[in-house]
C-alpha cells in the first residue's frame, strides 16, 4: 500500500508503487503528447508527481530532453536567480561501527587512518575555514556511540559557534550525522543547527540491507523514518539525498521524490535541500564493485528533472564532481556547492600526510575557495555566503511559503550581494575582488524594490567601512 502521509517507511516508500511507476514510465517513454503535457505542467512551477518525473527520466528524445533542460534553467532562475550558496564540510571523526560496503569508514577497514578531532583541533580547523571566507559548514561524523556520542556533536557545535577570528565567523552549522532519536534531534535543534541532512543511500530495501550488513544503520525503517523524527523534534529544515550508483538510478530517483512527497503530505514542508552525490573511488572502495554507477549525461538529466519536479528545493553538488560536471549542472538547477573542501578528518589547518589518509572519498574539484568564487563570477553566477533565513526564523513552512511565492528574492538577492561584498573585502585575491565588484554593481541595479535597494546600497558602503553581518 502506498500512503504518502504515513510515517511508516514501507508505506511512504512503497516498493510496489515504485515498480508500477517504472513500468508506467517505460511504457510511455515515446508518448510525446504525454511528455509534452508533463513539461507544460512543470512550467506552472508547482512541481510534478514522482510518476510524471519518472516518465521524463525515461524519455530519450533529444528535442524533448533539451526542452526539459531549458525549463530547468528557467525554473532555477525564477526561484533562485543566479545565486549559488557556498559551504564546506567539516569531518569531526571517522570512527564508525557500521558495515556499509560503499564507505571506507566501515568498521572492518584496517587501512584507513582513524581520527577524531579534539575541541582544540576543531577550533584550528574552523579558524582555517574562516580564513578562507566560509560562513556555513556541514558537520560530518561516523556513527560510533562511544567515540562520537551526541554530547560530542553538541560540544563541537558550541565550539564552532563560539569562534570569531578577525572578521570570520561560522554563522550556520548544518549537520549530517546518523539517524537518531527524537530526543537527540531536539538537542540538535536547541543547539541552533541549520539543516539536518541524511542520505538514504538507496531506497531499495533489499539492496539497502545487503549494503548495510551490520551496525545500527542496517535498520532500513529506522534510517528511512529519521526525517519524521527530526520533524517531530522541531527541526523543520531537512535535507534528503541518495548515493547514485548503489542501486539502479531510476528506482532511487523515484524513491527520492516519493520521500519529498511524503514530507509535504505529512508535515506540509518538503525537503529544504536535495543532494545528488555519486559513488566515487575511496580507500577500500572500487567503482568496479558498483555496476550501477551513472554517466555524466544521466547525472545532468537527474538534476534537471529534480529541479522542475521539486522547484523550491535547494540542490547540492559537492566536490565529488569534476569541474566540467559541476559547470553543467550549475546551469540545470544546482543552487549550493562546496568549495575548498577536505573530506579528511582535519586537513584545513594542516594538510594531511598522504600516509595518514582519513578521507571518506576522493575529491575531484580540488580548487581553492577563491578559485571557485572567481569561476562562478566568470560564468555570471552570484556566490552567496548568506545564512540569514536560519537566523531570522525563515525556516520550514515560513521559508517554503516565501520560496514558492517568489518573495524570498526580496531577501536573498541583497543578502547574497552583501555577503559576497564581505568575502571580497576580507578574503578575495585582487582579480577575484575586481570581478566581484563588477557583478555587485550590475546586480544591485536589478533589485526591483526601491527601499530594499536603498538599504542594500547603504549596507554595502558600511561593509567597506569595516562593518559586517547585515541581513534582510
Task: Please supply descriptive tags for the structure shown above.
48% helix, alpha/beta, 2 domains, nine-stranded parallel β-sheet, 472 residues, globular, TIM Barrel
Describe this structure in words.
- This protein has helices spanning 9-12, 15-27, 32-42, 50-58, 62-80, 119-132, 150-161, 182-190, 205-211, 220-224, 226-232, 249-267, 296-309, 323-332, 369-378, 388-391, 396-405, 409-426, 430-444, 450-464, and strands spanning 83-93, 136-141, 164-165, 168-169, 172-176, 196-197, 238-241, 273-275, 314-317, 336-338, 382-384.
- The protein is of the alpha/beta class and 472 residues long.
- Strands 1, 2, 5, 6, 7, 8, 9, 10 and 11 form a 9-stranded parallel β-sheet that branches.
Largest sheet: 9 strands, parallel
Helix content: 40-55%
Alpha-carbon Rg, integer: 21 Å
| CATH H-level homologous superfamily name of the largest domain | Aldolase class I
Mean pLDDT reading: 95
Low-confidence region ranges:
none
Please tell me what the overall shape is: globular
Looking at the structure, the CATH topology of the largest domain is TIM Barrel
Which CATH-level-2 architecture of the largest domain?
A: Alpha-Beta Barrel
For the secondary structure, the number of strands is 11
Structural class: alpha/beta
By CATH reckoning, the class of the largest domain would read Alpha Beta
Give the termini separation. Answer: 45 Å
What multimeric state do the chains show? single chain
Q: How many domains?
A: 2
Percentage of residues in DSSP E strands: 5-15%
How many helix segments? 20
